[in-house]
Amino acid sequence: MARMCFMFEIFEGQEAEYKKRHDEIWPELVTAIKDAGFKNYSLFRRGVHVIGYFEVEPDVKTAFEKLGKSEANARWAEWFKDVIVNLTDNQGNLLEFKEVWHLD
């Protein structure tokens, strides 16, 4: 199992909309996320800053490859273009935090 923590920003004034869309997350997207191997997936927001955490089996690359094939994920990403400022760097990688310590 692999763990990942990442961050991104949403546009100022879109905080309520960001929350609303997640309150109404599509069941087919939840299924795609789970089928791709994601577990224990959480998002936390403070102002316009969002931090995400998830665990995946067997690894991050494989999980994202599987999720990337999902039509629901593609629609979700398109739908959030007016809400999210930056989710990835210029190479398309999540703005990831490196793990320093973990308590099992």
Automatic annotation (TrEMBL):
<dbReference type="Pfam" id="PF05336">
    <property type="entry name" value="rhaM"/>
</dbReference>
<protein>
    <submittedName>
        <fullName>L-rhamnose mutarotase</fullName>
    </submittedName>
</protein>
<dbReference type="GO" id="GO:0019301">
    <property type="term" value="P:rhamnose catabolic process"/>
</dbReference>
<dbReference type="InterPro" id="IPR011008">
    <property type="entry name" value="Dimeric_a/b-barrel"/>
</dbReference>
<dbReference type="InterPro" id="IPR008000">
    <property type="entry name" value="Rham/fucose_mutarotase"/>
</dbReference>
<dbReference type="GO" id="GO:0016857">
    <property type="term" value="F:racemase and epimerase activity, acting on carbohydrates and derivatives"/>
</dbReference>
